[in-house]
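Saturday, quiet lab. Running sequence design on the structure tokens for the scaffold JK sent over.
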């Protein structure tokens, strides 16, 4: 099966036409507890900058004040437990969900991931959510075609240990692509395997690669939280109505483009604020 490249020319039209904020979707990003809210805040900011109409951070009550002191355009909703998340998801306008960045690995986090998966909504599962899914067969079985899994190499090995055996070290991109394709087929979800070469595989078998090499080399992306921002970009594009694989591919291109725009000295929180310049370059 062939593998395609993610390029500027393969991007969908990311411009906004007429309409109001609800036409661009409402994303919900789940936050971890006190002292662990930065990752979700970066993801939420990325979702808003990439054009989601509204973004809400779902915070444990103990973290509410910490988050409130840091965000402005992003909204906050207290989510104490799985019941509260279920109640919030009664609102069908919440059309893109994100769980994982610094969410934690406790029972509350696992319960939230379970509710999110059983809602059937489009969602991005990153970081701790992936570790929780790797530990719990029922969560793995609840994955569906609206899910985008965004593992780095360590998380990929936790989720798919047998498949990961083939991608140890500096495996050629064709081997990495084949492994990601197998992971997508097994999980029934879109799988985005991160790295300087990022692979996006659809469960149906279509596979695309973004190569951050040559004039797209972006080594400054090797910085804490860069993956959390990528999760937010995908979530924002899901909110805007892109299909899961399309959102994953476009977000990957935008993420590297933001890093290239900023250049040396980049830290993760710089990435979302480079989007306006990247969008201007795209003549949006
Ligand atoms: N500002 C914030 O709030 C931030 C919060 N964050 C939050 O921290 C939490 C923990 O996330 P995490 O990814 O740091 O740790 P974990 O899940 O243990 O995985 C690391 C293990 O995997 C392995 N590994 C193999 N290949 C790898 C690869 N390509 N890239 C990376 N690792 C790779 C690696 O093994 P090694 O290569 O070192 O042998 C190592 O043993 C999570 O909630 C996250 O959201 C961070 O996002 C940072 C910013
Ligand atoms: N050398 C590199 N070149 C290009 N992209 C990179 C490089 N190193 C890391 N990245 C990208 O940065 C992000 C790192 O994500 P991740 O490993 O989840 O970190 P974190 O958990 O700290 O957010 C991924 O999108 C990955 O593709």
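Result came back. Writing it out in full:
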């Amino acid at each position: 099966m062939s593998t395609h490249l993610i390029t500027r020319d393969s991007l969908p039209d990311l411009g906004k036409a007429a309409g109001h904020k609800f036409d661009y979707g409402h994303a919900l990003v789940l936050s971890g507890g006190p002292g662990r809210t930065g990752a979700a805040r970066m993801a939420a900011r990325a979702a808003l900058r990439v054009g989601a109409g509204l973004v809400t951070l779902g915070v444990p009550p103990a973290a509410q004040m910490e988050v409130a002191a840091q965000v402005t355009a992003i909204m906050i909703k207290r989510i104490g437990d799985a019941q509260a998340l279920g109640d919030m998801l009664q609102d069908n306008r919440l059309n893109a969900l994100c769980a994982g960045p610094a969410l934690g690995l406790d029972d509350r986090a696992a319960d939230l991931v379970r509710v999110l998966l059983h809602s059937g909504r489009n969602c991005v599962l990153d970081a701790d959510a992936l570790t929780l899914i790797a530990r719990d067969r029922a969560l793995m079985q609840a994955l569906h075609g609206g899910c985008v899994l965004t593992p780095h190499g360590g998380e990929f090995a936790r989720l798919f240990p047998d498949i990961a055996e083939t991608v140890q070290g500096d495996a050629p991109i064709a081997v990495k692509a084949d492994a990601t394709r197998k992971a997508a087929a097994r999980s029934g979800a879109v799988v985005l395997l991160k790295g300087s070469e990022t692979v996006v595989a659809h469960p149906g078998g279509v596979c695309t690669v973004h190569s951050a090499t040559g004039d797209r080399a972006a080594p400054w992306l090797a910085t804490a939280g860069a993956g959390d921002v990528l999760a937010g970009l995908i979530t924002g594009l899901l909110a805007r109505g892109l299909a899961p694989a399309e959102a994953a591919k476009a977000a990957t291109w935008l993420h590297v483009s933001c890093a290239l725009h900023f250049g040396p000295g980049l830290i993760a929180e710089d990435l979302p604020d480079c989007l306006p310049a990247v969008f201007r370059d795209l003549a949006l």
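Notes for JK: The longest strand covers residues 54-59. The chain has a mean pLDDT of 97. Ask whether to fix the surface positions before the next round.
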